[in-house]
Each structure stands twice: as C-alpha cells, then as structure tokens.
Amino acid sequence: MTTITVLGLGAGDTNQLPLGIYRQLMKEDKPVYVRTMDHPVLQDLQKDGLSCQSFDAIYEDQKDFKDVYETIVEKLLEEAKGEELLYVVPGHPMLAEKTVQLLIEKRDQGHIQLVIQGGQSFLDATFTALEIDPIEGFQFLDATDLKRERLQLLNHTILCQVYDAMIASEVKLTLLEDLPADYPVTIVTAAGSYEERVNTVPLEDLDRSVEVNNLTSVYVPPAPREKLNHQFFRLREVISILRGPDGCPWDRKQTHESLRKYLIEEAYEFIDAVNRQDDEHMVEELGDVLLQVMLHSQIGEDEGFFSIDDVIVSVTDKMIRRHPHVFEHVTVNDADEVVTNWEAIKQEEKGEKSSSILDSVPNSFPALLQAEELQKKASKVGFDWDSADLVIEKVKEEWQEFQEAREQENNEEMEKEFGDWLFAIANLARHYKLNSENALQRTNQKFRTRFSAMEKSAASENRSLEDYDLESLEALWVQAKEQYKGVE
C-alpha cells in the first residue's frame, strides 16, 4: 500500500526545523509536495537545493477552502499511486491542517498508509509573541469556519487562518456581535520567524489597517464579564449571586409558591406589549418572564432538585421529539398534521392515560381561555354541536335562564346562569374559529381608547368626568367613538 509521509515545517524559522526533518526533505529519493510555497522556511530550503511541487494553483481555481483541501488530497492520492511521497505543510501537521485530517480519513478507510512527523506548532511562538499563558483559559478556532456560538470570550482566543481581508472582515463582523468596536485585538503574522509582525488595533479596524496573509492569526484577549451581560452565562451568574449567601434578602427568601403571581403578571405584561406592537417593551417584558424562569430554576438548584440545565434539556429534547418532520424523516402535508402528530407524540410521552382528557387543561388558566380549551378537548371525542346555529340557540337558552334567575332576584343562580351563558358564548366563538380571549381584549382596548379620549375632552375644558351628568357623558362617548372610528 502506498505511504504518504507528512512533514511539518514549523512556525517559520529554519532554526526551528529538526535535523531529521531537514535530511528527509533534502533526499532526492521521494517526490516532495508542499501545500503552499508561501512559507519562509521553504525559501531557505530551496536555496539549499530542495526540489518540490506546490498546490498553490488550486487555491486560485477553487471557490472555498473546503474544495481546496479536498482537491489537494485527491491530487496527493493520484500522485501516490505506486510510490511513496512526502507531503509538506506549514507548522505542525496536527494543528489547524485540514488536509492532514482528510488524509487520516483516507488512511482509516484503507486507501493509504500515513506517517506524520515533525513541525513545531506556531502556537508556541504565538504564545511567546503575545506573552500569554493558555492555562488561564484558551480557545483555538479556525477563522474560515467561525461560528459565534463557539466563542468563549472569557478565555484567551486565537483565530487562525486569517488568510485575507475578506476573512478578517467576517471575523470582525462576528466578533462585533459580542464586543464593542473599540475592543483591542492583536494581529500576529509569521509568529516565530524573522518576518514576525505583531499589531494591536481596535476591532473595527481589523480588516483595514493591517496586511494579512496565510501566516496570520488574530488574538482576542479575555473580555471583562461586564461586557458580556448579553450572554446567558452572565444572567445565570447574576441570579446565583442574588440567591447566594451575600445576595439580596428578598431574592433569597423567595419560593416557588411566593413567585407564582409574578410569572403570571409578567406574562400578561408581555402580552400587553405585543398588543401595542411595542418592540422595546416586548424585550423588557420577555426579560422579566425569563427572570422568573431563572429564579425558579435557581431555587430548584439550591434545593438540589433541578437546575436551568434540566429545564433547557427538557424543552430542547421535547422540541426535537415533537418535530419529527424537521429532525427526522417524517412527512407532513400541513399545519393540521403537525398538530395531530404533536398530540400523538405528547400522549406517547405521558404513557398511561390520565383519568380525564380534560386534566391537561390547567385550572389556573383564565376562565375564558379555560372554557375554550375544555371545549376543544371535548370536541375531539365528538362531544360538540354540529353547527354554529345550534350553539346560537344554546346561547339564547342560557340567556333566558339568566333572565329567569334575575326575575327571581336570586343572585347565586344569576351567577351560575351567567357563567353558563359565557361558556356558551366562548363555544360560539370557537365554532367560528374566533379567539374569545383576543376578542374581549380588543374590546377592552377599544374601551380604554375611547374612555381616555373622553377624559382628554373634559380636561380641555378644565373639567373632570365627575363634573358631567350621564347625558353629557354619553355625548362625550359618541364624540370619542366617532374620533376613533375604525381604530381599535
């Protein structure tokens, strides 16, 4: 089987090249292929008589680096048929060298034998140039495949393979998602060689003030915690501190039970912001909802029962399980099928059926919403009116029963019958695919708007609404109604 020997050239200085590697390169018994000639050591080796062939032309022919590396490996396998060869790469073969990883895959598939030797890592020289100790926390990432979610900005971070201004620009834009424009970053080129250059610039100048090449890396120093308040770990940290021994007395004494009302309140305040189409307050109110989730999760962690990690993995696993049409090979034709599958999977997850299909409707739901959900559940087993006309008759019947209770001046019966009438009204809305809660909220908002207009009209005359009789108030209402005609 053909053998390919991979040799690393080190960081960029001939003095760093081991004697054994030098001797292998200078022998003329095997063809030598280099990934790129753009490396200082190769210039010295050519002066000493090295004969080699590079793959630099492939970089110009291919559109992205993935294709470049795959093409280089294909060429190597073609050239290696029937003979051994040397493949030379910058730095260390096992550090940020995709072609070597692809060759390892070919070896594991039984296509070739592979020998990997030599090469001082450019990281050693980079650590020296930057005067940093990676034991403090270090992250090493490929700039050509940089994903924001991989960044751990509390660590020393080095982004390698910043080949050109375009990659530098992409790196800048990614970092600007989390760091300010004036955040200092350091550009290191040809670390450890006589061509070494180290320049610190504001992040916003990363792609325009310093020349970069295939030996360039970008160093991002650890960010202060207070600059990362937008990241999840900081929120978790803050909540933990508030609940800790030296935290806030109010937060420390809270329980799941004491916090119940706040979660409901914050959810309603978010809905108000949605109804007003107020993006700024949506952000604020969602933050308040998230705060409640975090407080409950921290209480769970403090008591040793669960943590926010359990909450997150629970909902993540659930979303994957209940969307097989997205994460597996299940086909659905429309949203109705999605809901049907969701309910089937949900039932399968719960295992043994509950004693009633209505058990899944929380008693703590607002009454109108609860009525609608109860009716939906009953409808699924066929307990429902066949048409909206029949529901209208039921509405009339319940209203008549309320009137009878009113005539008898029986307040308790009036309340019961009024509840039955509201239940029938919610059912009627459902038959017409209307949302009772939304409908009443729209009417509430309409009333707020018109009543506020009445108050403003009164104020314009230096009066308050209490100064008007009912007839005058009615006139103000008609005026406000006309002013906001067609406006909710």
Largest sheet: 5 strands, parallel
Number of helices: 19
Total number of beta strands: 10
CATH architecture of the domain at 3-120: 3-Layer(aba) Sandwich
Shape: elongated
End-to-end Cα distance, whole Å, is 79 Å
CATH superfamily of the domain at 3-120: Tetrapyrrole methylase, N-terminal domain
Query: What order do the strands of the largest sheet run in, or round the barrel if closed?
Result: 3-2-4-1-5
In CATH, the topology of the domain at 3-120 is named Cobalt-precorrin-4 Transmethylase, domain 1
- Order of helical and strand elements: EHEHEHHEHEHEEHEEEHHHHHHHHHHHH
Low-confidence parts lasting 5 or more residues at pLDDT below 50?
Answer: none
**Name of the level-1 CATH class of the domain at 3-120:** Alpha Beta
Estimate what percentage of residues fall within beta strands: 5-15%
Rg, alpha carbons: 35 Å
Structural class: alpha/beta
Percentage of residues in helical conformation = 40-55%
Concise overview:
The chain has 488 residues and is an alpha/beta fold. Helices cover 53% and strands 10% of the residues. A 5-stranded parallel sheet has the order 3-2-4-1-5, with helices on one face. The chain has a 5-stranded mixed sheet with strand order 6-7-10-8-9, covered by helices on one side.
Describe this structure in words.
- This protein is α/β, with parallel strands linked by helices and 488 residues long.
- Among the domains are: 3-120, 3-Layer(aba) Sandwich (Cobalt-precorrin-4 Transmethylase, domain 1); 124-226, Tetrapyrrole methylase, C-terminal domain (Methyltransferase, Cobalt-precorrin-4 Transmethylase, Domain 2, 2-Layer Sandwich); 233-306, Helix Hairpins (Orthogonal Bundle), CATH 1.10.287; 438-483.
- It has 19 helices and 10 strands.
- It has helices at residues 19-26, 40-47, 56-61, 65-80, 98-108, 122-130, 165-176, 232-243, 249-253, 256-275, 279-302, 308-321, 324-327, 335-350, 367-380, 388-407, 411-431, 436-460, 470-483; strands spanning 3-8, 32-34, 53-54, 85-89, 113-117, 138-142, 156-160, 184-189, 197-202, 216-220.
- The strands form 2 sheets. It has a 5-stranded parallel β-sheet, with helices on one face. A 5-stranded mixed β-sheet has the order 6-7-10-8-9, covered by helices on one side.
- α4 (65-80) packs across α5, α15 (367-380) packs across α17 (411-431) and α16 (388-407) runs antiparallel to α17.
- The mean pLDDT is 90.
